Amino acid sequence: QQPVQSPQAVILREGEDAVINCSSSKALYSVHWYRQKHGEAPIFLMILLKGGEQKGHDKISASFNEKKQQSSLYLTASQLSYSGTYFCGTEIASGGGADGLTFGKGTHLIIQP
Amino acid sequence: GAGVSQSPSNKVTEKGKDVELRCDPISGHTALYWYRQSLGQGLEFLIYFQGNSAPDKSGLPSDRFSAERTGGSVSTLTIQRTQQEDSAVYLCASSSQGRQPQHFGDGTRLSIL
User: Fold this and answer.
1) CATH number of the domain that A37 lies in?
2) Number of structural domains, chain A?
3) How far is CA A105 from CA A5, B36, B111, in A?
4) Choosing among A2, A86, A99, which should be mutated to test the B contact, i.e. which has the most B CBs within 10 A?
5) Chain B positions in Cβ-Cβ contact with residue A87 (cut-off 8 Å)
6) Which long-range contacts (CB under 8 A, 24 or more apart) does A53-62 make?
7) What average pLDDT does this structure show over A67-88?
8) Omega into A113 within 30° of 0, i.e. cis?
9) Which B positions 34-93 lie with beta carbon below 8 A of chain A?
């Protein structure tokens, strides 16, 4: 089942913070976050594994609540370069082996100067 | 090459024709994935290869779609008797092994007239 992302779109001023949420009805093994700019390939941001971890890179961080099957991506002090569509991709816990990611519909982020 | 390479970058063909899309993954990556992205939509998983084997073909939309991977490297996605609803961007990704970050190519934009 496709994970649900919220919000669908957000417009920010440069320097403001944003939170993007991703929730699943399935027990998850991992959550992947990607950013895609118009006409370009999705770019990997980070992966979070079950166990409820939190990761950060520069001003972008994420958390994974295994009990709620939810992940959140945090963008702090947003920069113009953060604009794009953010996708979460999920891997379910069952199945034993690897599989493709099931992606949400994306969150459109627009950063204005 | 340094990244995932896909060809052609654009393909326009008439309804009913067959098309072949090629993906050359990052050298040494054993896992290869095909996704489809329709206009303004998220990414839809099609098929996953580990080496030359495809453990899960359930994502292929119909029996007109097939894929193969030879030598644990290049993969070809073939669509037979194309239909207008096949129009989309077909993205290929590879990872060092299953359940690792996926690196995407720039995609093939397929247009069926």
Assistant:
1) 2.60.40.10
2) 1
3) 7, 13, 22
4) A99
5) 42-43
6) A62/A31, A62/A33
7) 94
8) no
9) 35, 41-48, 50, 55-56, 59, 91
What fold, for B5-106?
Immunoglobulin-like (2.60.40)
pLDDT band for A67, please (50, 70, 90 cuts): confident
> Residue A108 belongs to what domain range?
4-94+103-112
State the nearest Cα–Cα gap between A93 and chain B, in angstroms. Answer: 11
Which residue is it, tokens 């700019």?
A37
Please name the member of A42, A99, A103 whose beta carbon is closest to the beta carbon of B56: A99
Q: DSSP string of A41-102?
A: --EEEEEEETTT-EEEETTEEEEEETTTTEEEEEE-S--GGG-EEEEEEEEESTTSS----E
B105 to A87: CB separation less than 8 angstroms, yes or no: no
Q: Give the pLDDT confidence of A39-54 residue by residue, as tens digits.
A: 899 999 999 987 666 6
pLDDT in tens, B8-52: 999 999 999 999 999 999 999 999 999 999 987 789 999 999 888
Rounded CA-CA distance B71/B94 in Å is 15
Q: Which of residues 46-75 of A touch B (CB under 8 A)?
A: 47
Preceding omega of B101 cis (within 30 degrees of 0): no
